[in-house]
Amino acid sequence: MTDDIVLRPGETRGYLGLGSNLGDRRAQLQAAVDGLGRHGVRVLASSALYDTDPVGEVLDQPSFLNACVRIATALDPEGLLAACKAVERDQGRVTDPSSPDYVRHGPRPVDVDLLLLGDAAYRSERLTLPHREVTSRRFVLIPLLDLDMGLTLPDGTRLADSLAVLPLDEGVRRAGDPLDVPA
Q1: pTM score > 0.90 for this model?
Q2: Is residue 154 classed as helix, strand or coil in its secondary structure?
Q3: Can you give the pLDDT at residue 3?
Q4: Is 113 tagged catalytic?
Q5: CA distances from 46 to 15, 26, 68, 100, 145 (A)
Q6: Residue 138 annotated as catalytic
Q7: What would the pLDDT profile of 120-134 be if each residue is shown by its tens digit?
Q8: What does the DSSP assignment read for 102-153?
């Protein structure tokens, strides 16, 4: 599904992954969508919501509610990453590794990941685009493909093809309708 919203001059289309496994998970994701607008990011569309099993370093934690959103922004990649991290902090996520409350990949009120921005790859010390896990996580690919089944990476890789080769053992279950996006 593609949207018919026209990009404004200077804007680039992108995709963010959202996740939450603490508190009212849907409300946390909705607050992230609402908060992005205060940081120079227009949310154009939301995928359905998916309940997903934890993956990675910390498996003993509650399941996540995940979604992806299509965005438009005039921010460059580093500015967009800063906006994503500001939204996380605004919602109480501890992002400072020196904090005693920080747990890498642990439970969190919200996670806002920059997945894709425009048609070019980008790499810095803090950021790699496309996101390095975008083709290897079902909980990312399924909601991304909700937004656009024809989505490709800058190198031409079709995300639907990436999903087709992933094992089916990563639990991803449809859990709700899309988040509300500004009109």
Answers
A1: yes
A2: coil
A3: 54
A4: yes
A5: 10, 12, 6, 34, 11
A6: no
A7: 899 999 999 999 999
A8: --TT---S-EEEEEEETTS-EE-SS-EES-TTTTT-HHHHHHHHHH-TT-B-
Judge whether 101 counts as a catalytic residue: no
**Contact yes or no for 49/65 (Cβ under 8 A):** yes
**Confidence at residue 86, expressed as pLDDT on a 0 to 100 scale:** 96
pLDDT-wise least confident of 25-29, 72-76, 101-105: 101-105
Say whether 158 is catalytic.
no
For the CA atoms of 143, 148, 150, 151, the dihedral, rounded to the nearest 10 degrees, stands at: -70
**Residues 6 or more apart in contact with residue 173 via CB below 8 angstroms:** 50, 51, 52
The CATH number assigned to the domain with range 12-176 reads: 3.30.70.560
**Of residues 13, 25, 42, 113, which has the active-site annotation?**
113
Catalytic position from the list 13, 25, 70, 108:
108
Q: Which one of 25, 42, 70, 93 is the catalytic residue? A: 93
Among 42, 70, 111, 148, which one carries the catalytic annotation? 111
Coil, strand or helix at 176: strand
Cβ-based neighbours of 30, under 8 Å, separated by 6 or more: 179, 180
3-state DSSP helix/strand/coil % of the chain, to nearest 5: 25, 25, 50
Residue 93 token pair:
């996520």
Query: How many other CB atoms are there within 10 angstroms of residue 117's CB atom?
Result: 25
Q: Residue 30 belongs to what H/E stretch?
A: helix 25-36
